[in-house]
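## retry 2 of 3
previous attempt timed out at serialization; input unchanged, resubmitting
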Amino acid sequence: MEDDDLAQIRKARLEQLKAQGGGGGGSSGGGQEQKHLTHHAAEARQSILSQILEPEAADRLGRIRLVKESRAQDVENRLIMLARSGQLRSKVTETQLKELLGAVAENKEEEKIVVSRRKGGWDDDDDDLFADL
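## retry succeeded, writing output
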């Protein structure tokens, strides 16, 4: 009796997974739906940003995105959060965006590459050692 119940539960779960597109049965509907949701979310973000940014600030943010995608994403997230919480009274100017960039940079330490050169390396006198070869 328990085996029949377990089989029914498994069958119901399998049907549920197939309906969601995760059944692994070759259905590509789930992937299309995920792409659609991602595209819709990106459009919503752009819509919000176009409403809260002045054109110069939007241009600067676009240039930042070309250089450092993660930094632009952090700034966008913060701007959207401020807009949703009602803390923005007017459109964000380029100067205000620069200040926000500074605040984001202070909160997030970036990895710095340190180059340490060896002391006592090659110099011009060492070239004479190989002249006889």
